Amino acid sequence: MKKQNTLLWLVAGCLLAAFSAVAIYKVWPLLHPEVLISASLDSECDLRAGPCRSQLPDGSSISFSIEPRTLPLVKPIQIVVEIEGLEAEQVEVDFSGVDMNMGFNRPALENQGEGRFSGKGMLPVCVRDAMEWEAKVLVKTEEGLVAAPYRFITVKPGASLPGN
User: Fold this and answer.
1) Domain layout of the chain by residue ranges
2) Which of 20, 37, 85, 146 is deepest in the core (most CB within 10 A)?
3) ∠56-59-65 over CA atoms, to 5°?
4) Cα 51–Cα 60–Cα 33 angle in degrees, nearest 5
5) What does the pLDDT read at residue 30?
6) How much of the chain, in percent, has pLDDT values that exceed 90?
7) Do 42 and 62 touch, CB atoms closer than 8 A?
8) Burial, 154: exposed, middle or buried (Cβ in 10 Å; 0-12, 13-18, 19+)?
9) Class of domain 35-155
10) d(CA 131, CA 157)
11) Could you count the other beta carbons within 10 Å of the beta carbon of residue 124?
């Protein structure tokens, strides 16, 4: 009887390990997509002032904006991406905390035509008064994935923006 229990636990452990390995294998490309071309981060970009534009090494460009420009937390935001010089099949924006894992937050945008994509998203609240974010625009093309990163800071209601 003891050998049977040990054997059952061993089989259950092997099945759990196999299931976990398959799950990781399937989810990995979603969480860590392979990027073909990436734009440089423009540290001078201020999404509160207006859209930011990134130039890619091949001469194409990606413009990114968020409305309202106050960058509110836990309220719907309008996301707009405009692309020049690329044929986009799909556009997503991956929001991630720079210094803190804030979970998976990657809204897909709808094609509005003529290189314009838009959609709604939401930024979660953070325990900190100010949170630095990176929004990585992911453009799926026939050749592969193109990325353009943009950074911004959100603040809790009543808190002031760092440096102000």
Assistant:
1) 1-32, 35-155
2) 146
3) 50
4) 85
5) 59
6) 53
7) no
8) buried
9) mainly beta
10) 12
11) 13
DSSP states along the chain: -HHHHHHHHHHHHHHHHHHHHHHHHHHHHHHSPPEEEEPPP-TT--TTTS-EEEE-TTS-EEEEEEESTT--SSSEEEEEEEEES--EEEEEEEEEESSS------PEEEEEETTEEEEEEEPPP-SSSEEEEEEEEEEEESS-EEEEEEEEEEE-TTPPPTT-
In angstroms, how far is CA 140 from the centroid of its own chain?
Answer: 13
137: burial class by Cβ within 10 Å (0-12, 13-18, 19+)?
Answer: buried
Q: Tokens 């008064």 identify what position?
A: 129
Residue whose C-alpha is closest to residue 64's, from 143, 144, 106, 118: 118
For residue 40, which amino acid is it? Answer: S
- Summarize pLDDT for 100-147 with one digit per residue, the tens: 888 888 999 999 999 999 999 999 887 778 889 999 999 999 988 999
Q: What's the sign of the alpha-carbon dihedral 78, 121, 61, 115?
A: negative
Those residues whose C-beta lies under 8 Å from the C-beta of residue 141, and which sit 6 or more positions away, are 36, 86, 87, 88, 89
CA distance 134 to 54: 14
* Tokens linked to 92: 């997503």
Do the beta carbons of residue 139 and residue 88 sit within 8 Å? yes
